[in-house]
Amino acid sequence: MYGLIAKLRTRPDQRDAVLAILLKGTGSMPGCLTYIVAKDPSDPDVVWITEAWEDKASHEAALALPAVRAAITEAKPLLAGFETSIPIEPVGGVGLRQTA
Amino acid sequence: MYGLIAKLRTRPDQRDAVLAILLKGTGSMPGCLTYIVAKDPSDPDVVWITEAWEDKASHEAALALPAVRAAITEAKPLLAGFETSIPIEPVGGVGLRQTA
Questions:
Q1: Is the Cβ pair A90, B27 closer than 8 Å?
Q2: How far is it, in rounded angstroms, from Cα B75 to Cα B85?
Q3: A75, A81 contact by CB (below 8 A)
């Protein structure tokens, strides 16, 4: 498995708009085991994304999907930048979507 | 919803043992929407845990469950410490277990 923990900083007051874009753009991504978007309770302009994928290739393929590309294009002007992006290697647990 | 992103450092060569303990201790936790344990691919002694819960109370209640307490007791001597623990507020996405 392949995963990512990412911290995004939005432009001021744009977090809710970014969250909405991320949620609508990520409904159907082959190989996606989890993709959860979250607010940082201590910083009003920070979004955390935690992702798990079958493998790195499925993550990269998702970035080429029309819905995902549209979401990235729509969100980009609302973002100040990526502050953290940590690759991880998920091993197991609760909430990994069954894809078999 | 309530969530956590945690980074644990294990004692040298104890990561696989810690992962096994975490996975067996966390199978049945009421209110748990996701609980995923992962390796850090760039550091052989680092474990990442990403969690989502119905609310903070369900997370705290889980810490009192016998299986979770047993897992904590078993893992503790194998850990060097928590390096990061970031509370988050999950909003939605793929892989949040349905509990309703």
A1: no
A2: 17
A3: no
The answer to whether the Cβ–Cβ distance between B35 and A96 falls below 8 Å is no
Which amino acid, one-letter code, is at A38?
A
**Structural domains of chain B in order of their starting residue, each with its CATH number:** 2-39+56-88 (3.30.70.100)
Contact of B96 with chain A, judged by CB distance below 8 Å, is answered with: yes
What is the distance in angstroms between the Cα of A60 and the nearest Cα belonging to chain B? 17
Rg (CA), chain B: 13
Per-residue pLDDT of chain A (100 residues; tens, 9 = 90+): 999 999 999 999 999 999 999 998 777 889 999 999 999 999 999 999 999 999 999 999 999 999 999 999 999 999 999 999 999 999 998 888 765 4
Q: pTM to 2 decimals?
A: 0.93
